[in-house]
Design a protein that fits this description.
mainly alpha; Helix Hairpins; 4 helices; transmembrane helix; Diacylglycerol kinase family protein
């Protein structure tokens, strides 16, 4: 019984890694967010941000990337169920995109709160 539980968790992890890979390989919105994430990690290293700032930045990146993935899944399901344009499907897709937008705005605010003090204190 215990081996079956572990085997199922391992398979689930493999499926999750496959989804991660497919999102990065095929989805332009995820690719853009991944690029921004890399830039933020470079900025965090350059400015030597605090542990707490790293935690907030990592949380913001994870939230945006996760919601982008969920948005992609919702769009795929909606297109599969109703391939031609439908007002209700459009509304559902807009809601999913709106959730990503909320997270992105929060991430930008977090980025400003973290980096503004470092940027204004640079000695040129």
């Amino acid at each position: 019984m215990k081996a079956n539980f572990i085997t199922k968790r391992l398979k689930g992890g493999i499926y999750a890694m496959k989804g991660f890979y497919l999102l990065l390989k095929t989805e332009p919105s995820i690719q853009v967010q991944a690029g921004i994430s890399i830039l933020m990690v470079v900025a965090g290293s350059y400015f030597d941000i605090s542990r707490e700032e790293w935690m907030l930045q990592t949380l913001a990146i994870g939230l945006v990337m996760s919601l982008e993935g969920a948005n992609t899944a919702i769009e795929e399901i909606a297109d599969f169920i109703h391939p031609e344009f439908h007002t209700k499907i459009g509304l559902i897709k807009d809601f999913a995109a709106g959730a990503v937008f909320f997270a992105a705005v929060a991430a930008v605010i977090i980025g400003i709160l973290i980096y503004y003090p470092y940027i204004v204190n640079i000695n040129l």
